Structures are given as structure tokens and as C-alpha cells.
Amino acid sequence: MKFSMIFEAQLADPTPARERQVIHDCVEQAVHAEEMGFDRIWAVEHHSLSQYAHMSASEIFLTWVAARTSRIRIGHGVVTMPFGYQHPVRVAERAAMLDVLSGGRVDIGAGRGATKQEMSMYGVSPEDTYPQVEEALRIFGSAWREEEFEWHGSIDIGPGAVLPRPVQHPHPPLFMACSKHNTLKLAAELGLGALVMGFAGADDVREMRKVYDEAIAARSGERFVTDRPNDHLSALCPTVVLDDAAAAYRIGTRGQRFFAEAIAHWYGNGPAPTGRWGGRDHVAALARRREQLVARLHEANIPARPVDTGTYNARHAYGTAQDAIGYVERLREIGVDEVMCLIQMGTVPQEVCMETIRQWGETVIPHFRALGERV
């Protein structure tokens, strides 16, 4: 089982100075993750989603991290691939350049960038997102290995060379962001690794693993985007770990509350998050917000996109290192290939993020490495 971290560059009450600080903080966390034995970092790509994600140019962030590290894998989790955001050849060139500079450490995840806010910034039409993501992935499957590449689909490309060539042969591993069962099935059919949200808890991850595995078993291979299928499932694991379990739980659920309200705002027209709450019972607040969301869903005031991807469930790896081990043990039993730690949430202080990374590196990860060595 692998261990990774994902970065959104979230922050409450953003100002230019605080925005600059949080991006540099994310770099420091990523460098510390390598020092503490994590296998991979992922960086999202979102546009104009204030507070929720200030990681708009993840290729630059990842290059900066790659230059300060030597071992940890560098993951785009994910690239927004509809053509309005960026031409697929440009994505292929950038990814290959980063693979060269990092010594072959790049992973590429595909996403739709399907919020109204993001699509309006780039002139992307919702109906184009799924077919263009799939077409972009098929382009990658050929562009990186052919000396003279051309493509004739909904867009015409070439002929010409896509340079440089990546270090990894024939190309970096390909993934897809999966928040719904239908997307999991699609990822399996296309031969893509799955990056799944795990906010709903271990039981939901178990169901997602089952859906993905069943789709892998049933596929014919005819829809593969490349001849190198990737059947790797990575599950999100919100976590804050401190010696003081109560403090970790309070800080973690507060960060998750911010995340939940931010995603409900941008994906479901909810009010903007503030991060300013009286009291400390963020678990009760999450429960209340979920009840409100369900009521609004029944009134059809929220789009079908799953704004409640479990973000109101507070049962995660919050507490001591032993608490985290207990939660991750459930994910291991389910058969998760990778535990993707979400530590950098909008209200979690930098010192807490760094301490959480240290505790995972010194206690949690070695526990599971030792299990693997005994098998």
C-alpha cells in the first residue's frame, strides 16, 4: 500500500499575502512528505474557486516541488482536460518536460473542471467535458510514443513530433478523478487508475472498490486509451494527527467543515464559507449542514453533481497516530492501493500540517511498511 498527500491550496479569508503564504506552505509540506517517507504528492487544478482551491497552475507548483526533492512521485491530481482549458498537445508537452526534469516521477490524472465558475472562465460547455477528457487521454496514449504524431477526431492535430519524450516508457501512468460510481466504471473501462473521494468513510470506499473491481473484471479492453492499463485505486483520507487526540479531532473537523462548505458553495450553489464559527462542535455543524443539503436536493435546488460526496461525515483519521493506524487498517483490509492524505484544509494551521506529516512518517507509515515486509 502506498501513501500520498493531496494539495488544494485552500485558505479562509484570502488576501494576496495569505495566498502567497499558503502556496509556499504547500511546497514545504510536500518536501517534508518526502523526508517522512510518503510515496507521492498530488496537486489539483482548479480555476477561480476562491477559498476552495488556489492551485490553478499545478504544473508550476509540481515543478517547484520536483526541484526540491529526489524520490517522491509528482502527481497531477488532476489536469482539467476539456480543450477550452488547454490543448491536449500542450498538456502532453508539459507533462513530458516535468517527467524529464524529475527523473521519471510524473503521474497524470484527468478531470473535467465542471463547476459553472470554471467553465465560464474558459468558455467550456458542460456537454463537451466527458467526451473531450476521453479524447485527450487517447491523444496522450499515442502522442508520447510516436515519432510523428497526428490525430483526427473532434480536433485535428499534426502531423508532427510531440517533444520532449517522457522518461517513463511509453508514458507516465494515467488516472481519472472519480466521485461517482459511473465515473469509476468509466475509469476501469478506459484502463485508468481511480482517484476517489473517501469523505464518506471506509464503508463507502469499500463499495467504490467493489464497483471498480467488478468493472475491471467485466471489461473487454476495447475502450482502453492505451495498451498500458492502470488498475490502481487511491482513496482520500482526511487526517490530522497530534499527541493531543482531542485537539486533532477539533482541528481536523473544523478543516473538514470548511472544505465541505466550500465544495457545497462552488458545486452546489451554497453560501460561501467563512471559516469564522463560534464554538467547537464542528461535528454537529457538519450533521446540520448535511440535513439542509438533503432537503435542498429533494427540492431540486442543487445540481445532480454529488456535492455531498460524504464531506459531512467526520469519522476519519483524526486523533493520535494510533487512531490513524486504526482507520488506515480498515482501508488496507478493503484493498485500497494508496491512501491519499488530505491534511491541507482551509483552516488547518501550517504547524499542525507539518506535525501531522511527521507523525504519519514516524509512526503510521512504518507500521504498514512493516506489515508488508512480513507478508
Task: Describe the SSE topology.
Blueprint: E1 2-7, H1 16-35, E2 40-43, H2 58-67, E3 73-80, H3 88-102, E4 106-111, H4 116-122, H5 126-143, E5 149-152, E6 156-160, E7 174-178, H6 181-190, E8 193-196, H7 202-218, E9 233-241, H8 245-268, H9 282-298, E10 317-319, H10 321-334, E11 338-342, H11 350-374
Parallel strand pairs: 1-2, 1-11, 2-3, 3-4, 4-7, 7-8, 8-9, 9-10, 9-11
Antiparallel strand pairs: 5-6
Helix pairs in contact: 1-11, 2-3, 6-7, 7-10, 8-9, 10-11
Name its key features.
single chain; 375 residues; alpha/beta; 8-stranded parallel beta barrel; two-stranded antiparallel ribbon; 11 helices; 47% helix; globular
Could you characterize the architecture of this molecule?
With 375 residues, this protein is α/β, with parallel strands linked by helices. Helices cover 47% and strands 16% of the residues. The protein is built from 11 helices and 11 strands. The strands form 2 sheets. Strands 1-2-3-4-7-8-9-11 form an 8-stranded parallel β-barrel, surrounded by 8 helices. A two-stranded antiparallel ribbon has the order 5-6. Strand 8, helix 7 (202-218) and strand 9 (233-241) form a beta-alpha-beta unit. Helix 6 (181-190) runs parallel beside helix 7 (202-218). 48% of the residues are buried. Residues 293-308 have low confidence and may be disordered.
Largest sheet report: 8 strands, parallel, barrel
Cα-to-Cα separation, first versus last residue: 12 Å
Total E-strand runs: 11
Strand order of the largest sheet: 1-2-3-4-7-8-9-11
Unreliable segments of 5+ consecutive residues: 293-308
Report Rg.
20 Å
Order of helices and strands: EHEHEHEHHEEEHEHEHHEHEH
**Residues in helices, as a percent range:** 40-55%
Count of discrete alpha- or pi-helical segments spanning 4 or more residues: 11
Beta-sheet strand percentage?
15-25%
Shape: globular
Name the structural class: alpha/beta
Rounded mean pLDDT score: 90
